[in-house]
Design a protein that fits this description.
BIR6-like, repeat, mainly alpha, TPR-like_helical_dom_sf, Pentatricopeptide repeat-containing protein, PPR_rpt
Length: 311
């Protein structure tokens, strides 16, 4: 369809008689209308962002509705710039209209993308109650596959400061029949592990086990982070990851290398990095770069030279 429209663009500029012939065809008349409409709307991501920002600031929700529909039809996803027109000054004024506008978008995909993007944006701004309201709208519409994902940005934002509030949001999820999934618990677990709260981390693990959610790379990454932050890293934890067939994330390697060097276990750090050498080029570059840099920072120049020379 896109190729056909492009061919008609050339015909439109070069031969008016051809265009007239297309208009006379009742089957093709709709296609011509779409073609002329597209000409008035440049197909570029920045054009969508600029138009929706201008319309949002002016309270022109008819245009907001049109742009949110149009960008999906043209294959452009929403971005972190889509709702940049929202600010502290206008949020309470426009949120009702914005939610009503999104609820009227033409199809499920357009609505889901817009709801998710808005939740993410409000969570970044730390407007938790407003973000929760958007997530509740998603659940109310019955987007079953997206229920947990709708709340993930909120939980993630809360785990940086407000741990108790994250549990309240999970209670809201449950009130809609949405049981927290492993990703939801991983956000909570990571937050507790980051501050070294062993007791709360253990409680989260107990919930994960009770609900038989298993464990993935993020779960183990959080545990390694917590062990390193509390100075109690155990090689058995890493071995269990490998035994369970769970690959270490890049950040998991960083969690391990840092504390090992902090406690002056230079040989163990080098041995750890070399044990993963040759598997992935990017991982090697990351690990060796971090290790060499931190050795130099600690004035361990000989170890850094040996690291580079030996590999």
């Amino acid at each position: 369809m896109v190729i056909t429209l492009t061919q008609r663009t050339k015909a439109r500029y070069g031969d008016k008689e051809i265009v007239m012939d297309l208009v006379r065809s009742p089957v093709r008349e709709i296609k011509v209308e779409l073609f002329l409409y597209d000409l008035a709307f440049p197909v570029a991501l920045t054009s969508y962002n600029e138009r929706i920002k201008k319309a949002g600031r002016e309270g022109d929700f008819a245009t907001v509705h049109h742009v949110l529909n149009k960008r999906v039809l043209d294959g452009f996803f929403n971005t972190n710039n889509t709702f940049k027109f929202i600010s502290t000054n206008n949020l309470s004024i426009i949120l009702n209209d914005l939610l009503e506008t999104i609820s009227r978008l033409d199809n499920y995909f357009a609505r889901k993308c817009s709801y998710d993007c808005l939740t993410d944006h409000l969570s970044d701004m730390h407007y938790i109650s407003e973000a929760t309201r958007v997530a509740e709208a998603v659940v109310s519409e019955g987007h079953a596959a997206a229920n947990n994902a709708a709340f993930h940005p909120i939980i993630n934002a809360l785990m940086k400061e407000e741990f108790d509030e994250s549990w309240r949001v999970m209670d809201v999820m449950k009130s809609y029949g949405v049981n927290p999934d492993l990703n939801t618990y991983n956000y909570v677990l990571t937050g507790y592990c980051f501050i070294g709260n062993v007791t709360s981390s253990a409680d989260v693990l107990a919930r994960i086990e009770k609900e038989e959610l298993g464990a993935d790379t993020r779960t183990y990454d959080a545990l390694v982070l917590g062990a390193c932050r509390s100075g109690k890293l155990d090689a058995a934890l890493v071995r269990r990851m490998l035994d369970d067939g769970v690959s270490l994330l890049y950040c998991t390697h960083v969690h391990i290398i840092g504390p090992v060097l902090k406690y002056n276990y230079y040989e163990q750090a080098v041995e750890f990095v070399r044990s993963y050498a040759g598997r992935y080029v990017k991982l090697d570059a990351e690990n060796y770069g971090i290790l060499a840099t931190r050795l130099i920072t600690r004035s361990r120049f000989e170890e850094a030279k040996e690291l580079v020379k030996g590999d």
